[in-house]
Amino acid sequence: MTGGRRSVEEHAQHVAALLEPLGSIPPAQVPLARALDRTLAEPVHAPISLPPFRNSQMDGYAVDAASVAAVPATLAVQAVIAAGDAASTLTAGTALKIMTGAPIPDGADAVVPVEDTETDEAAGTVTVHHTTTSGMYVREAGSDVHAGALLLPAGTLLAARHISVLAAVGLTDVPVRGRPRVAVISTGSELVTPGEELGPGKIYNSNGPALAASAAANGAEVTSIAHCEDDPEEFAAMIAHAVAVADVVFTSGGVSKGDFEVVKDTLEPRGGTFVSVAMQPGGPQGTAVVDGVPILTFPGNPVSALVSFEVFARPLLREIAGLPAIASGTRPLTIGLESIPGRRQFLRARLDGDGVAPLPGHGSHLVAGLATADALLDIDPDITTLESGDLVKVLPL
Ligand SMILES: Nc1nc2c(c(=O)[nH]1)N[C@H]1C(S)=C(S)[C@@H](COP(=O)(O)OP(=O)(O)OC[C@H]3O[C@@H](n4cnc5c(N)ncnc54)[C@H](O)[C@@H]3O)O[C@H]1N2
Ligand code: MOO
């Protein structure tokens, strides 16, 4: 604690301990069509070789290289082999017209590209102008990967190129790390859902969609998104639903010092802990466990809610889902800044060449300003002034 406030590190440890059981979510077998951005839970070995059979790299003529050792060489063309045809046999001293991807006939060991030949349709012959060597333009079976070899190690974050090879070896589904199920509850009687009428005193709910998007972007499966009036009974019912469908619940609003702090008022009597964390934004934080399911209660201000997610939830969700950690680093400031003493500040900023520039405006309601940021500056509580050129910790958004 610092001055009655819990440090960011202490709160992060507390949250990590609460979310620890999520580390044992079992892996899932998912179809390739839903495997993008998932993380392989186990290594995948090639069930077949690639290419599965010896095939042509060019549209041209399959020959025995020895038969075109002296050029020009004119050979009878026996037939045409298309991609998809079954294997055929080349009669010695002749050629077979062959398409890219078609199986190389037995007896052939090279392909002469069509550009290096002259065809006499009437005579049924091809004249080859350049000599070739055994293996030229032949794609050997297994030259990419052999059956049984390691295709992708466990931990691979599946991108299109991985889906490509998994499909190429004929796999229909793959074992991936389980995703934590997340429920999001936005609280506040002032909130209306986009699409509804914005009556007097009302604002659109932005935390619900933002927290759901943040969770989904960091490896979670969002199973419930709900909005609750500042009504303890309604909130208690929503919590009961949320813990039934999720592994972790995020709430926003209702945790500070007002008359209608529905989250705090409902969860504190049920063993929840509500603290002030020495950070800005995101000071008021709470946690609870209901029916064994951890609940993180973020403050309602939109910037505070998202910064809270970035600092406390994002690293853990990514670890649980097997996603790589977000690489934070340091960069020189392109503009100097002032910071409040005693609070770890997370300032909105924009990457600027090799440096980083803090954005103007510190209010936690500045959601349009937040949308122009692509990073947070992580300023230690004991720092009050930084000059242009000073190195700062940067957390990419
Ligand atoms: N007397 C004090 N007042 C406040 C303190 C304090 O220490 N003493 N802390 C301030 C800080 S810092 C924050 S952050 C907020 C946190 O308050 P709550 O978590 O109780 O949040 P609300 O009061 O419900 O809402 C705050 C603010 O954010 C807007 N909001 C809430 N939910 C949403 C949403 N889903 N989408 C968009 N905007 C939302 C809400 O309308 C309020 O304007 O408390 C300060 N007050
Ligand atoms: O922490 Mo509040 O989260 O400063 O706006």
From TrEMBL:
<dbReference type="InterPro" id="IPR001453">
    <property type="entry name" value="MoaB/Mog_dom"/>
</dbReference>
<comment type="similarity">
    <text>Belongs to the MoeA family.</text>
</comment>
<keyword id="KW-0501">Molybdenum cofactor biosynthesis</keyword>
<dbReference type="InterPro" id="IPR005110">
    <property type="entry name" value="MoeA_linker/N"/>
</dbReference>
<dbReference type="Pfam" id="PF03454">
    <property type="entry name" value="MoeA_C"/>
</dbReference>
<dbReference type="InterPro" id="IPR038987">
    <property type="entry name" value="MoeA-like"/>
</dbReference>
<dbReference type="InterPro" id="IPR005111">
    <property type="entry name" value="MoeA_C_domain_IV"/>
</dbReference>
<dbReference type="InterPro" id="IPR036425">
    <property type="entry name" value="MoaB/Mog-like_dom_sf"/>
</dbReference>
<keyword id="KW-0460">Magnesium</keyword>
<dbReference type="Pfam" id="PF03453">
    <property type="entry name" value="MoeA_N"/>
</dbReference>
<protein>
    <recommendedName>
        <fullName>Molybdopterin molybdenumtransferase</fullName>
        <ecNumber>2.10.1.1</ecNumber>
    </recommendedName>
</protein>
<dbReference type="Pfam" id="PF00994">
    <property type="entry name" value="MoCF_biosynth"/>
</dbReference>
<keyword id="KW-0479">Metal-binding</keyword>
<dbReference type="InterPro" id="IPR036688">
    <property type="entry name" value="MoeA_C_domain_IV_sf"/>
</dbReference>
<comment type="function">
    <text>Catalyzes the insertion of molybdate into adenylated molybdopterin with the concomitant release of AMP.</text>
</comment>
<keyword id="KW-0500">Molybdenum</keyword>
<keyword id="KW-0808">Transferase</keyword>
<comment type="pathway">
    <text>Cofactor biosynthesis; molybdopterin biosynthesis.</text>
</comment>
<feature type="domain" description="MoaB/Mog">
    <location>
        <begin position="183"/>
        <end position="319"/>
    </location>
</feature>
<dbReference type="InterPro" id="IPR036135">
    <property type="entry name" value="MoeA_linker/N_sf"/>
</dbReference>
